[in-house]
Write a structure and sequence with these properties.
Layout (H helix, E strand, L loop, with lengths): L1 E2 L6 E2 L8 E4 L5 H12 L3 E6 L2 H13 L3 E6 L5 H14 L5 E4 L15 H29 L2 E6 L2 H4 L6 H21 L4 E6 L7 H13 L8 H12 L10 H12 L7
Parallel strand pairs: 3-4, 3-6, 4-5, 6-7, 7-8
Antiparallel strand pairs: 1-2
Helix pairs in contact: 1-9, 3-4, 4-6, 7-8
């Protein structure tokens, strides 16, 4: 057993103390939650975003709570920016042990009456090629020291594609295929590669959408969240648990996968 470096609570030691983790797209949402979860376990975290002040703010808050964090900036769709990001990271830490490819996302809401090839190309670049650029930079050091973790964030849209945003579903499916291939290539080198595919996860944007949908069916916009969730969730997704997931639940799963205790996954 160990103790949470920030809260002092007794915890199962995940052996992450002093491991260095780069989390792309971690100035908000799932990425931020992942960074905070890893920092809670004693990892040194590198916050990345295209908005430098936001990334710096998250890193500063983690540091103020007793963790250790740095911030870097870069557009992952740019080869030059990824090179500069690599140099920024190297100026902060000697090497990266854990790489979380969280940056990505979807663009315009298109369906099969409006979807365009350029949208697919942009989505593939933003999700798959961005992750590939970062992997190509940081994987060699992992191979050299015979230890590493790569965790790619996909989506349930890759497994159960809806009729809208087909470009996003296809790009996220590409993340899963890339993960499977890479995991086989480096399995004997002490490196594990995994994908997490979040479903319906509570965020500021999701809560706003749910509350607006609730208002459309007659619920007060400021109704208790539990009432909104129970009434609106079936309109968005069929979730067996009957509730949306939380950012902390995603962060907990990834923190475990990033740890030495997940060495055979």
């Amino acid at each position: 057993m160990g103790f949470n470096v920030i809260t002092g609570e007794e915890i199962l030691d995940l052996k992450l103390k002093r491991k260095v983790a780069l989390i792309t797209g971690s100035s908000k949402g799932i990425g931020e939650a992942i960074a905070r979860g890893l920092a809670n376990e004693g990892a040194i975290v590198i916050i990345h975003g295209r908005d430098k002040p936001k990334a710096e703010s998250i890193a500063k808050d983690i540091t103020n709570q007793g963790g250790q964090a740095y911030s870097v900036k870069g557009d992952l769709t740019s080869d030059n920016d990824v090179h500069l990001l690599f140099e920024q990271v190297k100026s902060c830490v000697e090497t990266v042990d854990i790489l979380i490819n969280n940056a990505g996302g979807s663009g315009l809401t298109e369906d099969w009456t409006s979807t365009r090839p350029e949208t697919w190309a942009e989505g593939y670049d933003k999700n798959v090629l961005s992750a590939l650029r970062v992997i190509n930079r940081f994987l060699p050091d992992m191979r050299a020291k015979k230890w590493g973790r790569v965790i790619n964030i996909s989506s349930m849209a890759a497994l159960m594609p809806p009729d809208q945003r087909p470009d996003y579903a296809a790009a996220k499916a590409g993340i899963i295929a890339m993960t499977s291939s890479l995991s086989k290539a480096v399995a004997k080198e002490g490196i594990t590669v995994n994908t997490i595919s979040p479903g319906t996860i509570l965020s500021f944007r999701l809560e706003k959408a749910f509350r607006q949908a609730g208002k459309n069916i007659g619920l007060p916009y400021d109704a208790p969240w539990e009432e909104i969730e129970q009434s609106v969730l079936p309109m968005f997704a069929q979730v067996p648990m009957g509730r949306v997931g939380t950012l902390d639940e995603i962060a907990d799963a990834i923190t475990f996968l990033a740890s030495p205790r997940a060495s055979y996954i």
